[in-house]
Amino acid sequence: MSTAPRLAAAKRDWGHDESGCTVLHIDMDAFYASLEVARHPELRGRPVIIGTGPRSVVSAASYEARRYGINSAMPSARARQLCPDGVFLPVDMAYYRERSRRIFAEVLEQVTDRIEKVSVDEGYMDVAAALTRWERPSAIGAWIRAEVARRFHVTCSVGIAGNKLVAKMASTNAKPDGMLLIPLARHAEFVQMMPLRGIPGIGPSLEKRLNAWGVNSVADLAAMDEATLARATGSALAAHGLWMAARGMDDRAVTPYTPEKSVGAERTFREDTRSMRQVRDLLRWACDDVAGTLRRKGLTARTLTVKLRFADLSYRTRAHTLEQPFSTASAMLPEATRLLRAMLDMPEDGGDGNGGAGGGGTVGGAQDEPLPRLVRLAGVSASGLQEAAQTAVQPSLDDLIEERDAAERRPGDGATKPQRLSRAEQALDAVRARFGSGAASLGL
């Protein structure tokens, strides 16, 4: 759900010279909400808000709901106050991802394989090679819009330009259900009529900083030289990017494949908590979820990160790169617990990840351990991803000794404890694949 500012004056005919305009930005309109209306046609015309629960936030809202002032990231409780008669639905990411995959495969990829998927609901296309068949980029954009509507009963907006920056700004201003072509000769003019926040990447903090230097629009930005911009932003790199953007310039290429950088899972508690048991139970779920995703995608990871958000909405992260690549929750949870305790300046728990000093904080037992701060959200992520089939695992000396001892105790099965736990988690994968993700849970 895009919250980028739009300018009514920008949604007009900018001319029909399509030469050099080989970049398309495809942006689905209110994607999650539109998909829910597509599978529940009785909701058409009603304000639909995706995001339920007293502690949740709005993930998407139909255009009918936006008339009430509802935007993404708004607390769902506030959205209910603004629109008490709205239809509030839970997020169904599996459904949204499946629809997204089909839209890209069955529509966009029929035009070209030069596609950079940015998220489930948007992507860039480099159609230069496809013009031998299609002749005009606008013909491609019109066909995509028609096919997405016909096959999936949702709409999308298309921006056509000579680079990614202007194409994205064009699709934003074409919304909803529109298409905007910005000829090369009009790039600077189009960009410079926008407010500062119209440039992707300029958020509230940078906007405030630029305002302090008398820069209140992209036109003001274009009037500044690069050296002054560097002083205003405190970064020569950021200054150069802004200097180019203010002139409608962007040298980034459409990158068809961007390797996944991390896999994560997090949840917000229904009520802020000081309970180590509750936080660690959530981390156990997150480790299990991330590990299952890694195995499903045939990946291993090297770096584990724990994230906490506190009652005052501030947050902390702590990361550690493990000696061995991992794809199991049994390898992740002890390290996640150690990072949690270090983040909160709590003493080590003896290395098993199960409790506090002296055993007083046994998690899952009769006692608990108070945390020094109220925790609102917790989660983990795994990064440093590699293809599992191409990852060599060098056993440690401890592994070799345990493997020898295990072979002596159980002839014919010299598996170490990590190897046995890995087998158990793979068995869980098979159970969940057959009976559903909630059919079995991991106990560590």
From TrEMBL:
One of its GO terms (molecular function) is magnesium ion binding. Coiled coil: none annotated. Monomer. Keywords: Cytoplasm, DNA damage, DNA repair, DNA replication, DNA-binding, DNA-directed DNA polymerase, Magnesium, Metal-binding, Mutator protein, Nucleotidyltransferase, Transferase. Belongs to the DNA polymerase type-Y family. It is found in: Cytoplasm. The record marks Y32 as: Substrate discrimination. It catalyses: DNA(n) + a 2'-deoxyribonucleoside 5'-triphosphate = DNA(n+1) + diphosphate. Residues 352-364 have a biased composition (Gly residues). Residues 23-203 form the UmuC domain. Residues 347-368, 402-424 are annotated as: Disordered. The keyword Cell division does not apply. Its cofactor is Mg(2+). One of its GO terms (cellular component) is cytoplasm. It comes from the Bacteria. Binds 2 magnesium ions per subunit. This is DNA polymerase IV.
